Amino acid sequence: MVAIWLIWPGLTVAFAQANTIYVQRASLEADSAGWALDARFDFVLSRSLEDAINRGIPLYFTTGFELTRARWYWFDEQAVSTSQSIRLSYQPLTRQYRLSSGGLQLGFPTLSDALKVIKHVSVWHTIDRAAVTPGYVYTASVRMQLDTALMPKPFQIDAVNNRDWKLSSDWKRFAFVVNQHAK
Q1: 183 within a domain of the structure (yes/no)
Q2: Spatial contact of 176 and 68, defined as CB atoms under 8 Å apart
Q3: Cα 126–172–127 angle (5° rounding)?
Q4: Cβ density class 54-92: b for 16+ within 10 Å, e for less
Q5: CA angle, corner 59, sides to 58 and 60, nearest 5?
Q6: Is residue 121 part of a domain?
Q7: Residue 32: which domain range?
Q8: pLDDT tens by residue, 124-171
Q9: Angle at the Cα of 166 from the Cα atoms of 93 and 39, rounded to 5 degrees
Q10: What is the pLDDT of residues 111-134, one digit of tens each?
């Protein structure tokens, strides 16, 4: 009984880490209309999520981005709040994994190839120049999660009660300052 008691905390830590998305890095890069997010995430799909994809159940990964500015006299100003979702599905006739976002669709021969694209968010225009004021310090926040609310209704119910379907990251926060010459 003592051996089980000593092993149990290690098992719960390992299980908790298996359902976590890690934000490896995140930065904002200037583009023609403002700034774009470049972020890398790391996660491993559980066996039940892989089985779900291979059985034709689509999974949705949503990346959220927020830009706020602290104010001493009122609530923080939320300059930007946006998200994008990528749909991951398997097409048994073509034996391809398909990623869909908006009108764009890409096919991949393996699940790992499709996940590489999901794990690297790049050139996502998140901030318009007019949304920020030069010289102010903003806090940029980014996270990713498996969005069960976008799944078909029968699977949403199962996902609520199943730990394997809870996959998300914490908010990764970093400072963002607009250069005076940016406008």
Answers
A1: no
A2: no
A3: 15
A4: eeebbbbbbbbbbbbeeeeeeeeeebbeeeebbbbbbee
A5: 125
A6: yes
A7: 2-177
A8: 999 999 999 999 999 999 999 999 887 766 665 555 556 677 899 999
A9: 80
A10: 999 999 999 999 999 999 999 999
